[in-house]
Structures are given as C-alpha cells and as structure tokens.
Amino acid sequence: MKPELTARNLELTDDLRTHVEKKLSKIGKYSDKSAPAQVVLKHEKGRYIAEITMPFDGMFVRGEEATGDIYSSLNLAVEKIERQLNKYRTRFQRRKREGRAQMRSIAPEEAYKDEPGLVRVKRFNIKPMPVEEAILQMNLLGHDFYVFTNADTEQVGVVYRRKDGNYGLIEPE
Fold first, then answer.
1. Is this prediction's pTM over 0.90?
2. How far, in Å, CA of 90 to CA of 93, rounded?
3. Which domains, and CATH codes, for the chain?
4. Which tens digit of pLDDT belongs to each residue from 76-94?
5. What is the DSSP string of 93-151?
6. 110-149: pLDDT as tens digits
7. Which residues, 6+ apart, have CB-to-CB distance to 139 below 8 Å?
C-alpha cells in the first residue's frame, strides 16, 4: 500500500517515509488496495501528531495519536488501527460462525450482552438551515454533532465538534 503522505510543520525525511510505508504494510493487507491510506504527520504545540485514515470493507478506519516523538505517534496510531481491524474481524467471524438462524432464535438482549447495541431510535424533521445555524443548534442542544439539511446545497449534512474545539462539516459527494 502506497500512502498519501502529508507533513505539516516538520520535515518528511526518507527514513520517516520508509518507516510509514513499513508500518502501513502490516495493515495494508486488510484494506482496499485501490484507495491508499491517508497519513498526516504534523508538529503542533511541542507534540508530534500522526493521523491515519484508511479504507476497509466499504468503511474507513482512523487512528490518531500525539506524543513527543513522531515515530512513537505513528506506531501508536498504527496499533490503534490494528485493534479496530481485529475487533471488526473477530466480530464478523463470530457472527458468521454462529449463523443467522441461531441469531434469530436468540433475543436481542441476550445476543451481545458484552457489546454495545442500539438502545434508542430518534426521529425528527430536518429543516433547511445554513451551517452556522446548525452549529448554533448543536451547541444549544449540548450535542457533539448535529444532522441538518444544508440550505445552500439542499443536501443532508452533519456538523460536529472536533477535539481541538473547532467544528467540522460532513457532506455527501
């Protein structure tokens, strides 16, 4: 897997590039080969941050870590992705092994007692609004995200609060 590497506020040396490729080759066997992993390495406020996003089985997995050393941050981010992939694979294999017929006969509460499950379904009308109003609504509700119809694009969007305190917007292509 050839990663899309981006470096911000740090020099991307050949050693660092080689280290990234070596680490990603460990987890590259699980991903979609047509889409490369996106790796962002940056230096902010005395910390080195590694962010890795890669496609997996029609979804994306993401690992982000920040330490005092870029190599450590990268290693920890790769380990986080490996844990996510292993968790997904073991769940998938267990469900496949148990079979669908058996799963239907078990009450939903008994099926996955140790796993988090869907506990609430919420339905609401989505009114068109600008992104700024959606952020205001999200803050008024005290939520970390808010689903809305963007008045400018007339498409469903999601605004969310980022770890750095800023906001993000997810829109369909």
1. no
2. 5
3. 4-102 (3.30.160.100), 128-170 (3.30.505.50)
4. 999 998 888 888 878 777 7
5. HHHHHH-HHHHHHS-HHHHTTTS------------EE-HHHHHHHHHHHT-SEEEEEET
6. 555 566 778 888 887 788 999 999 998 888 778 899 999 9
7. none
